[in-house]
Amino acid sequence: MERVVLRYKNSIISGLVINELNDLVTIKSSNGYNLTFDRSEIEFLERKNVEYQNQRKMEEIEKGSGSKKISVLATGGTIASRVDYETGAVSPVSDPELIFGGSDILSKFTISVKPIMNQFSENLRPSDWITIGERVAEESRKADGIVVAHGTDTMSYTASALAFMFEESRTPIIFVGSQRSSDRPSSDSRENIEAAINFASTDFGEVGISMHRSTSDGMVSLIRSVRSRKMHTSRRDAFESIGTPPVGLYDGSIRFLGDYRHVSDNIKFRSTMDDKVALIYFHPALSADDLENMIEGKHAAVIMGTGLGHIARDLIPVLKRFVSNGSYIIMTSQCIYGSTNLNVYSTGRELLSAGVIEAGDMVPEVAYVKTMYLLGQYPHEDFVDLFRKNMRGEILERDQPFESLKLVG
Amino acid sequence: MERVVLRYKNSIISGLVINELNDLVTIKSSNGYNLTFDRSEIEFLERKNVEYQNQRKMEEIEKGSGSKKISVLATGGTIASRVDYETGAVSPVSDPELIFGGSDILSKFTISVKPIMNQFSENLRPSDWITIGERVAEESRKADGIVVAHGTDTMSYTASALAFMFEESRTPIIFVGSQRSSDRPSSDSRENIEAAINFASTDFGEVGISMHRSTSDGMVSLIRSVRSRKMHTSRRDAFESIGTPPVGLYDGSIRFLGDYRHVSDNIKFRSTMDDKVALIYFHPALSADDLENMIEGKHAAVIMGTGLGHIARDLIPVLKRFVSNGSYIIMTSQCIYGSTNLNVYSTGRELLSAGVIEAGDMVPEVAYVKTMYLLGQYPHEDFVDLFRKNMRGEILERDQPFESLKLVG
Asked: Hey, where are the domains in chain A?
């Protein structure tokens, strides 16, 4: 890795070169930002090679004197790493003192950080969800609260998977990530973890996500995992609670805004996932052949249709054949917000006749994880009933029978 | 079709049965709402068959005495149809007097409504975009402004396609839809069309979308088609201008909020589309084989990756092979908001090395339409440069070179 000092316009900037591509040079500057320059606009004043040590230590560290014991399971991602700008070393942040030194966290809690894997979250597969779930189940027999540090990219998928796995939990299970690593001045890492540890000390017996509520500091949301979605690529308040307020807030103290399932004396945990499930985004050039290829060999396909849950009419026979062979088609909407409703237009009614199952207002990615969980756990004859049941708060409760009225009226 | 009168709790409700599925009965009530009942909770007081006439007349109607001539091209969808609750007939709303009687629209404009197709928008294919584009080009030689009435489901796709087709336009081209049909008390149809006709009378020389700004009446947005996205399945303010304010507002008069391309003396119109383009949603169970099947035979694939534009690392070799065979991979983000940035993490840098092209802050569906347009129109050696160029306002302008700083700092 190269350490450089360069001139751009009137500024002298130093940092580590992290990428050179064609005419663009990207450096991580000493104050923690990534900066991209056009090579023709900069002048290098100094370039020197520095040793790059990828020393990701995997040991556990326990610190603090509080009576409540919180286990932080680190899986990787931005929140779990920091770069040393002198040496270029990337290392996991596993010492709670480095994170919480100066705050009262270590007098309130005993915190042990246990790295269980070291992956950017885009690399995690359903088998990793099971590994994480099993480690959480194991830890939750010993600790008062569990925090899972996770990359933000697929955090909603993993956290939703754990929500389905844990029908009952002895402790809160709080996922936390950060949009900007802890070495950046604008990092959200410390606030998100501090909030996560506090949420993990309550009687919230579900799986939640602890992330910034707004772009400014000072307020962190607890979002029910099965209503969460990453809605911005880079902002610190990227995670939203879709269609409903967050369950709780932390701004130094905790305020719950809604009901939740309380911790239980027992753990009810089942972890098998069926990964033969596709998630398909309908688009105007999608042909019947394309669709056939995408669903072949799958046990189910979750489609992100248009509007209330539609696809082009000429694709419906493909779905009908798939369903008649004993597989499942779930319809969600690429609108993200709102609910499917296949009773309004003729396309929707034809989809229902073909045996398509509506996801209602479930978040599309959550409908996908739920499908994998149900097919991995339960007899197939129970699938449709269980899918429609509100198992973990993934469905927003509505009055019946005026459902259609509320949605489209 | 059956006309029924039923009792539900203390209410007597009448309407047309539009669906019966297992234990659920859906009726379109006389006041225009769809209502779904559990069969066990209702009592039928009356059921009688009524004739169902699907009399979609396709004639043109011209009305009004204003000097500005606006052509409304109807393609189908909610905005173009109404149900007669006495007879069950579904017919297009093509008489401007039915729509605008009582307002001053017909004294300000001469409006001709021309049905050019009658399709729910989920059925429209890229070939339909060309048909619509050609009819718009033809009409824009004769009229002062063009309004295209379109189903809302894929309106952003079609309107974006036309935005790329028209490098210059003699008239405004304003798409309009409605989330609730004109026979419903809560319809947004009339306000959206009234605004569209007014927007179509300005010097806005681009392709825009005219839809409700909020759930209440009174304010309609003009959204640049290439920044638009349907973000709610049912709300009247479903369309958002992603990452930037709308170009204009209408609340009885027009206010422009930003710059726009003005109408020109000429039409520059090119309509060929390459429909061998896939739009792929990355998800944790997506295997290398799945991905290979999805891109085989395509000229390009637009991927909706996670976060800043990532996919699981073990899929990258598949993309690399595809690119080395002369095809294109475009990376967008399933976050919808924000920009891709493949320079921040190692996964992103590996994607860049594999030849993946970043879409930056282009809306994923717009990146997809742009890819189809460019591959259909230009020599392939120009693709990358043109794709990165801001052709129609599809890219939000940012300062260079602090792009990365702004995105992730």
From this structure: 2-49, 61-269, 277-408
Taking an 8 Å cut-off on Cβ atoms, the answer to whether B349 and A18 are in contact is yes
User: What does DSSP say about strands B357-358 and B328-333: parallel, antiparallel, or unpaired?
Assistant: parallel
Selected residue with higher pLDDT from A93 and B262 = B262
Query: Would you state the pLDDT for residue A407?
Result: 29
Question: Taking CB atoms and an 8 Å cutoff, what residues of chain A touch B306?
Answer: 121-122, 153-154, 230
In tens, the pLDDT along A1-57 reads: 788 888 888 788 888 887 777 788 888 777 667 788 888 889 888 888 765 444 445
* Gap between the Cα atoms of B5 and B21, Å rounded: 18
Pairing of strands B300-305, B328-333: parallel
CATH placement of domain B277-408:
3.40.50.40
pLDDT mean over A251-274: 95
Using CB atoms, which residue from A123, A180, A286 is nearest to B313?
A123
Among A386, A377, A393, which Cα is nearest to A130's? Answer: A377
Domain A2-49 -> CATH class: mainly beta
Partner-chain contact A120 B311, CB within 8 Å: no
Q: Tell me the CATH class for A61-269.
A: alpha beta
DSSP for residue B143:
-
Tell me if B2-49 shares its fold with B61-269. Answer: no
Instruction: Give me the pLDDT at residue A405, please.
Output: 34
Contact A233 B407 (CB under 8 A): yes
* Closest CB from A337, A344, A409 relative to B231: A337
H or E element that contains B384: helix B383-388
Which chain B residues touch A26 with a CB distance below 8 Å?
Answer: 343, 404
**For testing contact with chain B, the best of A334, A356, A361, A402 (most B CBs within 10 A):** A334
Is the CB of residue B387 less than 8 Å from the CB of residue B358?
A: no
| Residues of chain B with confidence (pLDDT) below 70 | 31-32, 50-58, 80-94, 398-409
How does pLDDT run across A246-259, given as a tens digit for each residue? 999 999 999 999 99
> Among partner residues B180, B285, B293, which is closest to A125 by beta-carbon distance?
B285
